[in-house]
């Protein structure tokens, strides 16, 4: 070959690869994973699971906090400036749905929700945003059934037991969960008037503790208490309040939902507490599946199912390590 051709071919190769590099970089998939409570084990695990899936499949996951509306909107701006094509979100307030979906649309980003589903301006679920979350009512029933079974095992008279229902009725999944638990308890002979609401401002331990404390002081006539809420973090707040009030573990049956680090830490204590169990759901699966749904939507233009509902397994001090392993937690 003519010697002069070689350098020019080389030059062509270099310039071709120069043109290709930015194009390849543009093809790289990057998604955000925005959560309302970045310090809670449930959400840390979801983000970890999504990140791991990204490493396996070759896409990047940007982990972000969205503890209020302002933070969520700046997280979306930030994702846009990084060239992300979409995000998974568990919003801090489900009524922010339309504002979040709008911002995403302006940037041409795809959005899926995990755990807490967006509501539209009329308070109805935004069915056009694909969602993956717990089957709240069914899981709530499991909570109520677990409590009723443990009450029976302890020989408590259902007529004499009080319930601390730590409620968060603004959040539909929370209401579905506590409604499910209430219905199962009533089916087991619980007295409706003995159920006391402790409305919490948030979905964490400290807001539950604050809501629970006055309920115990006002209802000192009861010797036996059951405690339930939308998640185990909140039930733990109720259990801590029961301890502070002076109730002992054998007077309290608290059953949570999630099966995350908060429950593992409680089960690992040397002595049992009033936190009897929790209905564990795989946060690993929630994180992986929601990220995978979004990734497939971005890369293959296949919109994920409108609503995926996940199920749970009762976890107690006796079986928690096994359940943890079975659920990949
Ligand atoms: C809500 C709760 C979380 C978790 C999740 C699945 O977001 O706040 O603790 O239960 O649903």
TrEMBL record:
Q: Does the keyword Calcium apply?
A: no
One Pfam family for this entry, by name?
Answer: Peripla_BP_1
The residues the entry assigns to the signal sequence are 1-25
| Annotated ranges, domain Periplasmic binding protein/LacI sugar binding | 30-312
| Keyword Protease recorded | no
The protein's UniProt keywords, in alphabetical order, are: Periplasm, Signal, Sugar transport, Transport
Q: What is its main location?
A: periplasm
At the top level, the lineage of the source is Bacteria
Query: Where's it found, cell-wise?
Result: Periplasm
Per the record, the similarity remark reads:
Belongs to the bacterial solute-binding protein 2 family.
Query: What protein am I looking at?
Result: L-arabinose-binding periplasmic protein
What broad taxonomic lineage does this protein's source fall under?
Answer: Bacteria, Pseudomonadati, Pseudomonadota, Gammaproteobacteria, Oceanospirillales
């Amino acid at each position: 070959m003519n010697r002069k051709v070689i350098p020019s071919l080389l030059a062509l190769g270099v310039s071709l690869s120069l043109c290709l590099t930015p194009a390849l970089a543009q093809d790289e998939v990057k998604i955000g994973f925005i959560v309302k409570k970045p310090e809670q084990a449930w959400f840390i695990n979801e983000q970890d699971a999504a990140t791991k899936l990204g490493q396996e499949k070759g896409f990047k996951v940007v982990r972000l906090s969205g503890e209020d509306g302002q933070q969520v909107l700046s997280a979306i701006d930030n994702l846009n400036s990084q060239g992300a094509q979409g995000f998974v979100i568990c919003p801090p307030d489900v009524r922010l749905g339309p504002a979040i979906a709008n911002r995403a649309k302006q940037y041409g980003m795809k959005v899926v929700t995990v755990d807490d589903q967006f509501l539209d301006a009329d308070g109805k679920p935004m069915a056009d945003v694909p969602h993956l979350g717990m089957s709240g009512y069914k899981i709530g029933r499991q909570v109520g059934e677990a409590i009723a079974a443990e009450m029976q095992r302890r020989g408590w008279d259902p007529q004499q037991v009080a319930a601390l229902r730590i409620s968060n009725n603004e959040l539909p999944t929370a209401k579905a969960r506590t409604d499910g638990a209430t219905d199962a308890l009533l089916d087991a002979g619980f007295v409706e008037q003995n159920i006391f609401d402790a409305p919490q401002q948030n979905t964490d331990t400290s807001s539950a503790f604050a809501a629970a404390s006055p309920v115990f002081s006002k209802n000192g006539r009861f010797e036996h208490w059951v405690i339930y809420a939308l998640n185990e973090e909140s039930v733990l707040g109720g259990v801590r309040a029961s301890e502070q009030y002076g109730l002992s573990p054998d007077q309290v049956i608290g059953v949570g939902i999630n099966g995350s680090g908060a429950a593992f830490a409680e089960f690992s204590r040397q002595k049992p507490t009033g936190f009897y169990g929790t209905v564990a759901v795989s946060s690993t699966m929630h994180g992986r599946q929601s990220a995978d749904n979004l990734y497939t939507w971005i890369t293959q233009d296949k919109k994920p199912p409108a609503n995926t509902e996940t199920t749970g397994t009762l976890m107690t001090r006796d079986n928690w390590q096994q359940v943890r392993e079975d659920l990949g937690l």
